[in-house]
Every structure is written in C-alpha cells, then in structure tokens.
Amino acid sequence: RELEKKLKEDADKDARTVKLLLLGAGESGKSTIVKQMKIIHKDGYSLEECLEFITIIYSNTLQSIMAIVKAMNTLNIGYGHADQQDDARKLMHLADTIEEGTMPKELSDIILRLWKDTGIQACFDRASEYQLNDSAGYYLNDLERLIQPGYVPTEQDVLRSRVKTTGIIETQFSFKDLHFRMFDVGGQRSERKKWIHCFEGVTCIIFIAALSAYDMVLVEDDEVNRMHESLHLFNSICNHR
Question: What residues form the annotated binding site?
Fold first, then answer.
C-alpha cells in the first residue's frame, strides 16, 4: 500500500511537471527569456546576484565600444574630432592591461568621450554591418550611472547583459499548480550537437528568433544572415526524424 501511494505521488508529480526546451540560433534571446522567468515566476535576483553581474556589464560595455572603434577602420569612418583618434588608441591599450570586468576612471572617461564623438555615433548607426551586442547603446548611454560608487545593477541592467551560453543550463520555477523545468542550450553552431541530449521527455519546445536580426550576420559565419539561419534551423528541427 505504501508503494502504491508513493507511485501515485510520483505519477502526480510527473503529470504536473512541464519540461520546456528553449531552442534557437546564437544570440536570439534564449537566455534573456530564462532571466525573465526568474524575475516573473521566482524571487528575481537578490542583491548578491545583481552585484555579480557588474563585471559582466562592464565587460559588455568595453567589448561594445571596442567593436565600434574597430569598425571605424573597417567601414572607413572618420572621427569627428582628432583627439578621439588618440582616445581610441588609449582604449585598445587599456583594454589589454586592465583586469577583465573592471572599469577604472581613466577607461570610463575615454569611453564617455568616444561615445559622444559624431564619427562613433555614425558607426554605431551602421551596427548591422559588423558584430555588436544589442545592449551596446543601452550601456553606453547609461555609463555615467553604471560607474557611480556603490552601483547596483537594476533588473533591466541584468536582463541586457550578455554571456555566451555553453552547455545546458536548467532553471526551475512553479506557476499555478505546475512545476516547470526550463532548459537553455547554446545556440551557436558548435553547441548544437549537445541538443540531442535534451529532447527526452520534453513537453514543449519554445523556438526563439530575434526580429532585430533580419539584417545581421552570424557571429560564427559572416556570410550567413541570422534570420535565414533561424528559419533553416526551425525547419530542420520540425522535420527531424
């Protein structure tokens, strides 16, 4: 009788468990969906967890301005002021010498000056022609707030942060009387061979595609449009035998 009771409890628990698999190409927004679920259906991010994102946010900000500076040469765009050319050189030198994920005052001053430059802004407007984090404008426009003493990242700051997903990351949360197990997997081509391990027992697949990627190319192959890759990937998943 005890065994029957235990089996029934396990069966009821399994019936209330929903296994969600997030699929999509790289940088389509899968990890952002996971963060949203944590904010909406769990307790969000604690102070300690938010503080852990500071290094990621600073790193994202530096990577963004460096990507724009490098694209200035590629796209043959001139700086609005000659001083900013010197700032660009200093930026690249500092990026090699500072501890990763930090934002010394000398570096933040350079980034703030560069971001105000008309040439940098013109290059930013052509972001679809090179690889740039979609959070670049958000962080660079708000850099003065991000470098204040005692800065604590907001939920929006956390949502905008970008770390490449490798492997398989599970997030659990409950909604009404259902228990959800959500699996986030890396979307870049090198990560997709791991997807096969996730399909067993899946209740639902959520396929993510970024509408903003219609005029962008893949990080791993600059000959392939991101939207085309998403459509091809969706087709291959739906028709997989």
Answer: 27-32, 134-135, 159-165, 184-188
